[in-house]
Every structure is written in structure tokens, then in C-alpha cells.
Amino acid sequence: MASSKILVLVEEHYDETEFNVFNSFFPTHGVAVDYASYLWGNESLEFEGNDKTSKVKVDLCVSEVNLSDYKGLILIGGYAMDRLRYQPTLSGSRNTAPAVELLRTAVQRMDAGQLAIGTICHSLWLFCADPSLIKGRKVTCAHNIACDVENAGGELVVANGETVDTHSDGLLITGRHPGSVDAFDELFLSTIQAL
Question: How do 158-159 and 155-156 pair as beta strands?
Fold first, then answer.
């Protein structure tokens, strides 16, 4: 596979298991990993994970991302995506948080067959900020946010009373929780390799 890149959206309280696995798995398969977040006018910000055992310095703002530079976009788990859907000023019924605006563009590219999007654990929360992005899509996620996902119009894939470990709905790859990260990474890798 030719060298390629993926972008991972991150914020405070990201899932460290996923972060560590992404940083080891993808580069060993020739895929560079960049991180982006909303930087609130700063040149860079440093975020700490849920377990407070790792930090990541981010200098790429979601408002300046060129998605055509990437084969895939992953929304990291933990509470990071809840934080990235925050908008300081309400403007009607449309969420205008910069990360949500980026996701809208990413979903258009995904639906056009140009970009894979991956979510794991709680990260479908960013999709829930604009229900038109998730409505009718078959997904898996952490049980904690199952009602949020269903209320936004997502269709949960369930087996034996649990959401499944991973699921692919076209170029949308979803994982249940950090315990599914290895299977998620393999599925996401095979998806971007096919692009």
C-alpha cells in the first residue's frame, strides 16, 4: 500500500487505549496519523486522556483541515467528541461547532466514496449533534450512548442483547468500545486500503 494518512479528532478526556493502539497500529501499516481539534484561537493545545497517563499536543485546528489530504477520519472515543460538539453561542437548530462543520464535510466526502470515517465507543456523540448525519445509518457504539444514537436516527446493530463489536455501513466504520479497538483498526485499515 502506498503511504497514506488518517486524521484523528481529539479533545480532553480522550480514550487512551485507542490513542495508544492507533499510534502503534497504523504507522506499522504505512499509514501516518495526524491529530486535530478545535484550538480556540491558540497555536496549539495539549489534551490529557481519561486515565491521565498520556497527553497529546495538537497544532492542527479542525477549521483548517483539508480532508482531501486524508484517506480516513477517526473520531476518538472517551468524552472528547462530546466536548468537540460544544458551541459557545446557540444559532437556531443547526449546531455550528467547528468540529461538527468538519464532520458535515467529511460525511459528504464519505457518501461520495472519497473518505472513510471511523467512530468508536462514545464518539458517535459528534454525529448526534446533527441527526441528518446519522439518520438511517447502521452503527455500533457504547451502550452508554445507545439512546442518544437512536434518538438521532441511527440504527443500532445488536446481537445477543449487546451492540456488536464492529460494524461497517459503507465507509462508516463503528466500534463498540476500546476492547474492540484491534478489530476496529483492522476493519478501518482494510476500508481505507480499498479507497
Answer: unpaired
Bridge pairing between strands 72-75 and 116-120: parallel
CA dist 35 to 51, 143, 174, 188, Å? 19, 26, 19, 17
pLDDT at residue 3, rounded to an integer: 57
Which residues have CB under 8 Å from 181's CB, separation 6+? 17, 18, 21, 120, 175
Joined together, the cell numbers standing for residue 176 give 463498540
C-alpha torsion angle, residues 98, 34, 83, 49 (rounded to 10): -170
Distance separating alpha carbons of residues 62 and 98, to the nearest angstrom: 7
Structure confidence by residue, pLDDT tens digits, 129-145: 999 999 999 999 999 99
CB 87 within 8 A of CB 145: no
Q: 10 Å Cβ neighbour count for 153?
A: 15
As given in the structure block, the three cell numbers for residue 25 are: 497500529
Residue 4, SS3 per DSSP: strand
Which residues of the chain have a pLDDT value below 50? 1-2
What whole-number distance in Å separates Cα of residue 14 and Cα of residue 123? 10
**54 by DSSP, 3-state: which?**
coil
